[in-house]
Amino acid sequence: SAAVCHEQAMNQSxxxxxxxxxxxxxxxxxxxxxxxREKMLxxxxxxxxxxxxxxxxxxxxxxxxxLAALDSNTFVDNAGVGEREGxxxxxxxxxxxxxxxxxxxxxxxxxxxxxxxxxxxxIYALTNALATDALKRAGCAGVSECTVLPxxxxxxxxxxxxxxxxxxxxxxxxxxxxxxxxxxxxxISAAGLVPVPIENLREGDELRTNVPAIAxxxxxxxxxxxxxLSTTSCFAPRAVExxxxxxxxxxxxxxxxxxxxxxxxxxxxxxxxxxSASRHARLDAFVxxxxxxxxxxVGGSIVASADAKHGRQLTQALRGIYPGRASISxxxxxxxxxxxxxxxxxxxxxxxRRALLPQFGxxxxxxxxxxxxxxxxxxxxxxxxxxxxxxxxGGSRPPAALGASLFVRLVSGVRVVAPSxxxxxxxxxxxxxxxxxxxxxxxxxxxxxxxxGIDEVDIDLFLKRVDKALG
Length: 471
Prior knowledge:
Elements: H1 2-18, H2 24-47, H3 57-68, H4 91-96, H5 118-137, E1 145-149, H6 153-167, E2 173-177, H7 182-190, E3 194-198, E4 201-203, E5 206-208, H8 211-221, E6 225-231, H9 243-253, E7 256-260, H10 268-280, E8 285-289, H11 290-294, E9 301-305, H12 311-321, H13 329-369, E10 384-388, H14 400-408, E11 415-417, E12 424-426, E13 429-431, E14 445-449, H15 456-470
Parallel strand pairs: 2-3, 2-6, 6-7, 7-8
Antiparallel strand pairs: 1-9, 4-5, 8-9, 10-14, 11-14, 12-13
Helix pairs in contact: 3-5, 5-13, 6-7, 6-12, 8-9, 9-10, 13-15
């Protein structure tokens, strides 16, 4: 365009003037380096996907600063007389945010460009495109809709349910195959909806989806059923939902289907299940965390869809229901991380986790067997692993003591679960043995995860410490 040609001419003239102060050979070399970085940005804007090779930090900083300079609060001699002009009083805060102070979206749509914030709006649009590419490379090739939200996963699910409720205002029940994680229930109740829990079925050590019970409940609720909220990533011994079977039920009953894919992006099994359910039946949307899947600070989630029939309508409703403007901080974190990794780095991160899983499981099994325990067999969960926790006859040491013992040994992330006949109220519902994903829990166990970012050092330290704690 004429504007781009003018900018290039201006940049060229600046370099030409600089040769009057510094030898031309040095300036030409610097100009070439600058041109290489500008070409990387140009490629990003044209291709709208992750670069094959990750960007270096200098390029990342340059691009973010350049985009931030497109927001009105950074304009030279800008006269701001509105009530919100992107003013930041603390220099440290301004530096932390690269001067990006206007946020994203407008009161009518979180994805709508802001007149005062061209740079922030561009970062958001690019981040949605990069996230779509990352999800495709993780195993769900059909992803077509993607919205990154500055909300953690639970609130992301709540907003998704509110959008569904807007599309079907008379429906109020959410059929929910049980997953003992409080945020799921809270997401439902925060949307003003009623959860209908479905107990899981035990298949060997695993807990699997009770498909016949879901079918019966959908038949019973009829048009009052808003959706089924299924789960992919979860704590062992619960397994990945029988997603395709659930999706077929939803399609047959004309009921929406949302999957809680909290940390499932890192798992090929979860992503392929999502792709299959979306392609062959009905899966309106799947929701995932940015921190667990992309190693950024807590605060963001991604609502995506690979369902060509239902995804677009839900995405539009979701974007339109967000009230007011939104923070760009979690979006900027993901934007920088995906460019830092590049496609090659992202795929390698996924590969490393996948390669460590069987090694971790084998070594953990060897350690616990020395103490009379066993690794639970959960072939349909390729992130979390469960280990039996036998209580010694007449012993006074409760199962939870293992978790405390490991915590003081600087081991985090271990979940200890024990059978209980005392009901626990969560989200207005009573559950037995809460944490076990079933009322019929007969033995104590603990679970650990082979999650994205784990390395051999983590595994070595944990195995040494759990060996001592069990002893």
